[in-house]
Amino acid sequence: MTAAEECHGPTCITCSDVAVAVTVTRLLDGGLALVDTGAGPGTEVEVSIALVDAGVGDVVLVHAGEAIAVVAGKGAGEVVPGP
To answer: Is residue 22 a part of any domain in this protein?
Structure first.
């Protein structure tokens, strides 16, 4: 069971209906990373960063467990809007 599967509220902070900004704290194998949700101690969760060029310290937008954009940090660049 990953940290993201251990959510204790009605919705997971990274799986809600909106993207949330989180900070990458550690890179993992397989295009994954641990991120700090900013919700207090013990709220670090595992998300996929396979779609973005993110590193430790970068702030990424996460929706449904997937980082969809880097909004601050070394990987931040032009965000191309969707269709």
So the answer is: yes
Q: In this structure, is residue 17 part of a structural domain?
A: yes
Query: Cα separation of 26 and 82, whole Å?
Result: 28
Question: What is the model's pTM?
Answer: 0.69
Q: How many domains does the structure of the chain reveal?
A: 1
Q: Residues of the chain whose pLDDT is less than 70?
A: 1-17, 75-83
CB count in 10 Å sphere of residue 8: 6
- Residues 6 or more apart in contact with residue 24 via CB below 8 angstroms: 33, 34, 35, 49, 54, 55, 56, 57, 58, 59, 60, 73
Task: Kindly report the CATH number assigned to the domain that includes residue 14.
Answer: 2.30.30.140
